[in-house]
Design goal:
By secondary structure, the protein is an alpha/beta fold. It has helices at residues 28-31, 44-47, 52-58, 75-85, 100-115, 132-136, 139-144, 157-160, 163-166, 179-191, 206-216, 220-233, 241-247, 260-274, 278-290, 295-310, 316-331, 335-349, 355-369, 385-389, 430-447, and strands at 65-68, 89-94, 120-125, 148-153, 170-173, 203-204, 238-239.
C-alpha cells in the first residue's frame, strides 16, 4: 500500500470523516480537530486575515516551513489544513517511529506524484528527534521541489534542526492558546453532536470551563482530554467543581528539563535576582519547583548568583547559599523548597556587585594577550642554598614586620606593575573595601622613601 493511501487525521482529502463507525473510539481532542482554516482557533499572527502566510495559502502556494510551538497548539492540524488549502496530498509520519528507510520510500512516492502533477506536503512530527543524517536525507527532495516539507517541533529549531535544512525552510512560531480561546473550544465540544459530546447533553458553567482552560496552560489537547474525562464521571450530566477536582490531574506546566523552556525559566530566575525583584524570583523558582526540577540544580544555580551578582557587596550571600544547598540536600522536598525560596529572596534583596566577576575577566584577558610573566625573585621561596645564591627571596619584605602589616613591595611582575583588576563598587560592603584600598594606597606611599635612590 502506498503511503499516499493513508488519509490523515481520519479524513479523506475532502475533509469528510472516512471512519464514522470508529469515530467514538478516537479521543475527543482528535475528533474535534478543525476542518477548515476559518474553524481554526489561535495563531492569528500567522494565519489571520491579511497575513503573509494566509495570502500565500489563498493563492495556492506553500513553501517548506517549520512550525515551532508548545504542545497542543495545533501544529499537526494546521499542517493538514495548509495542505488541504493548496490541494496537495498530505503525508504524515512521526520522527519517533520512522527512519531513513521510511523517508526514502516516501520520497520515491512523492517524486512519482510530482511527475503526475500531484503536489505532496510531507509532515514530520517532532522533527527535532531526527538525527543529522536523517534530516540531511530530506535536503535534495526539498531543494528539487519533490515535496513541501512541514516540520513540527516543540524545541528551538536553532538548536535542533540542521542549518542546511533551516536555510531551506521558514520557521513560524506558534503561541500557546489564550484561556478564552480554550473555553471556545470546550464549548464547541460540548455542543457538537457529530464529533463532540453534544449527544450527552452535558452542562458546565463558565467558571468550570475557565478552570479547565487555565489548568491546561494553553494546551488545547490537555483541555479537551480533561473535559472528556470529566464528562465520563459527571453525575446527571453536570460538570461541577467536584467533578473537575476528580478529573484534573496535577497542573500541566510547560517544562522540559533538557529543553529550551528549562533554560528560559532559569534565565528568568537569574535575571530577576540580578534585578533585585524578589517577587519575580519567587515566581520563576516556583515554576521550576512545581515542574519537578532537580532541587540541587537550583541550589547550585543560586550559589552561582551569590558569587556572580552579589559578590563582596554582601559577603554573607555565599554563606547563605552554601547553607541553603546543605539544607536542600539534608531535607529534600518539600521542606527544602522553603530554603530555596528564602535564599532567592535574600539574594534578590542583597546589594549587587559584579566587581569580582569583571576582575576575573580582566585577568583572563591579560593572561590570554600577553606572555606568561615569571614570578618576581623576591616572591619566590628559597629552600636551598643554591636558590638563595641565585637571588630567590632576596628583597622580600615580610608584612607582619611592618606597622599595620603594610609593605610598599609590589607583588605583580614588573610588566604588570601598574595593572589594576579589582574595582570595587560603592554598594554594600564593597564601599568599605574601596575605602580600605584607598587607605592601603596612601599607607604604601607613606612608607616609600622620599629619595628613590635610598
Amino acid at each position: 500500500m502506498s503511503l499516499f493511501d493513508l488519509a490523515p487525521l481520519g479524513r479523506d482529502s475532502d475533509g469528510k470523516n472516512n471512519v464514522p463507525a470508529a469515530a467514538g473510539d478516537r479521543p475527543l481532542a482528535d475528533r474535534m480537530r478543525p476542518r477548515t482554516l476559518d474553524e481554526y482557533l489561535g495563531q492569528e499572527h500567522l494565519i489571520g486575515p491579511g497575513t503573509a502566510l494566509r495570502r500565500q495559502l489563498e493563492s495556492g502556494h506553500l513553501s517548506s516551513l517549520i512550525l515551532w510551538g508548545p504542545p497542543g497548539v495545533g501544529k499537526t492540524t494546521l499542517a493538514a489544513l495548509m495542505a488541504k488549502a493548496v490541494r496537495a496530498d498530505f503525508v504524515s509520519f512521526s520522527a519517533v517511529l520512522s527512519g531513513v528507510k521510511e523517508i526514502k520510500a516516501v520520497m520515491a512516492d512523492s517524486e512519482k506524484a510530482r511527475r503526475m502533477g500531484h503536489r505532496t506536503v510531507l509532515f514530520i512530527d517532532e522533527i527535532h528527534r531526527f538525527n543529522k543524517a536523517q534530516q540531511d536525507a530530506f535536503l535534495p527532495y526539498v531543494e528539487r521541489g519533490d515535496v513541501t516539507l512541514i516540520g513540527a517541533t516543540t524545541e528551538n529549531p536553532s538548536f535542533e534542526v540542521v542549518s542546511a535544512l533551516l536555510s531551506r525552510t521558514r520557521v513560524y512560531a506558534l503561541l500557546a492558546l489564550e484561556p478564552d480561546q480554550i473555553v471556545t473550544l470546550l464549548r464547541r465540544a460540548l455542543a457538537d453532536r457529530e464529533r463532540g459530546l453534544g449527544a450527552m447533553k452535558l452542562t458546565a458553567g463558565d467558571d468550570e470551563l475557565m478552570q479547565i482552560a487555565v489548568d491546561s496552560n494553553g494546551d488545547a489537547r490537555s483541555a479537551l482530554n480533561t473535559l472528556e474525562l470529566a464528562a465520563g464521571i459527571a453525575h446527571d450530566g453536570a460538570i461541577t467543581r467536584e467533578v473537575l477536582a476528580n478529573a484534573m490531574q496535577r497542573k500541566s506546566l510547560l517544562y522540559d528539563k533538557s529543553g529550551e523552556e528549562h533554560f528560559n525559566i532559569i534565565s528568568a530566575l537569574h535575571k530577576s535576582v540580578r534585578s533585585s525583584d524578589a517577587d519575580a524570583a519567587l515566581y520563576w523558582l516556583g515554576r521550576m519547583l512545581e515542574s519537578g526540577e532537580d532541587r540541587l540544580y537550583l541550589a547550585r544555580r543560586l550559589v552561582r548568583m551569590a558569587i556572580e551578582d552579589i559578590g563582596l557587596a554582601d559577603p554573607r550571600a555565599i554563606e547563605q547559599a552554601q547553607a541553603c544547598m546543605q539544607t536542600v540536600h539534608f531535607l529534600g522536598p518539600p521542606e527544602g523548597d522553603l530554603a530555596l525560596g528564602q535564599l532567592a529572596v535574600y539574594l534578590a534583596l542583597a546589594p549587587k556587585s559584579d566587581s569580582t566577576y569583571r576582575a576575573m575577566n580582566r585577568v583572563r584577558e591579560v593572561i590570554a594577550a600577553s606572555v606568561a610573566q615569571p614570578v618576581p625573585m623576591h616572591l619566590r621561596n628559597a629552600p636551598t642554598r643554591l636558590m638563595k645564591e641565585m637571588g630567590y627571596a632576596k628583597g622580600y619584605d615580610h608584612a607582619h614586620n611592618n606597622p599595620d602589616a603594610v609593605t610598599e613591595m609590589s607583588c605583580l611582575p614588573d610588566a604588570l606593575a601598574d595593572a589594576r583588576f579589582f574595582e570595587p563598587s560603592d554598594r554594600g560592603y564593597e564601599q568599605k573595601l574601596r575605602e580600605r584600598m584607598e587607605w592601603l594606597k596612601n599607607a604604601r606611599t607613606a612608607r616609600r622613601p622620599a629619595d628613590p635612590s635610598a
